Amino acid sequence: MRGLAILLFFNFVGVFLHQWARIPLPGSVLGLILFAAGLFSGIIKLEWVESTSHLLLRHMLLFFAPVVVGAMALSGVLRQQWLSITLALVGSLLIGMLITGWTASALMRGRDDQS
Amino acid sequence: MTSPDLFRNPLFGVSVTVIAYALASAVHRRFHWAHALLLTCGGIIALLLAGGIPYESYKIGGDLIAFFLGPATVALAVPLYKQWKRIRSHAKAVLTSVAAGSICGLASAGLLVWFAGGTRLVILSMMPKSVTTPISIELSRELGGSPELTAVLTVLAGLLGSVIGPAVLRRLGVRQDLAIGLAMGTSSHGIGTARVVRESELQGGASGLAMALAGIFTSIWLMPVYWWLGAHAG
Q: Which terminus of chain A has fewer CB atoms gathered within 10 Å of its CB, N or C?
């Protein structure tokens, strides 16, 4: 329970900062950033949170299944706009993937040459 | 007719989702080609349609399950922390490539829908689709898109990336394990990570790290879009 308590605490702080300080990042992402800072600074020990985090991440699919079920009301949008949706899905997947891969390869190669 | 009150009890949505997920996971263990998410959601949709149960009734319990997306997002810091220690010698390559890949991914997603004549709702729902589902859903809500549409687009991006990603990357000159992992995690989040973790531990680790980093970067890149939308809203 300690792990879940810590995760919920950071989630709550993130949502609070989002609403109160109007930081334009989702509360859960703010919680993720703060929790990562807690781990890197050593304030939070990995073993306190490791098993709970592993459990939640392993069953992530269960948690977003209800949202995907909600998309059945959107079949009209998907049917009408399938062309723009397909084009953007395939095109932006390739662009995002290749830009990441090429940038990483180029920077690592540059580093290897120097050493 | 059955009592509609029973379906409005949160226990209905919660138990249907958990039972469907448990059955789908069992089927997936026997037959690996059967995707657990498609089985879970397909099963729930079939049940709702067959029973004439309104989605609004299911959603009362479904929202309780979806609540855990929040703490699960926070939990992404754990793989981020663990993998960072392993590959921090490549910090500059990791941060630069994930930052560049996520901004190009979201900009091209929005521009391609706009170019092909898609509506504003589809543009806003498409932009966050490369990042892990709990974050993409939240970003879509913030932008004024449809979280449900974004959830489907995110899953499709993940599935497509996991099928064609490694082959396309190798053919186009991306051959190091670290670079392949980063590219998969940035563009195809958890589903892409699950694909490459079978190839090598380094690819899986880099992909898991990139997936958490891309979620943070994409959230930050979208900040000017909120301001722009706010300035043009009225």
A: C
